[in-house]
Amino acid sequence: MMEDKIKIVTTNRKAHHDYEILETIEAGIVLKGTEVKSLRQGKVSIQDSYAIIKNGEVWLLNMHISPYEYGNIHNHDPLRDKKLLLHKHEIIRLATKVKERGLTLIPLKVYFKNGKAKVELALVRGKRKYEKKEDIAERDLQRELKRKYADKYRE
What is the pTM for the complete model shown? Predict the structure, then answer.
């Protein structure tokens, strides 16, 4: 079998802190030429972006791809809505889940897989403030236990 060559361009690190991730799915992105060149240079931000389902199509909004510095008058709009490529049954399944209260679609990472631009979409539910604090406390506890364990066996 052929191995997939994956080059991660950017990740949404804040997503794991702000949201409870229920499910992930890979989707292709429809891009223009100068957008692909900027993406290859890593000039993209997905921090405030989200996906919506409109007329049976999935659209990624607020994904900022900086204009290509060597582009001309045909350069792209940085905040242009990008169409995502998914199978129809996947779109229908996601649409029914998004209709539930409090669920939304956000991108977790943008990457190139075998030369094709892809985005990892996540179906998420927003965390409440106390849930975020619990997660931080749990992470600190795990870090402390790991440190104590490492010190014990280092001697």
Answer: 0.77
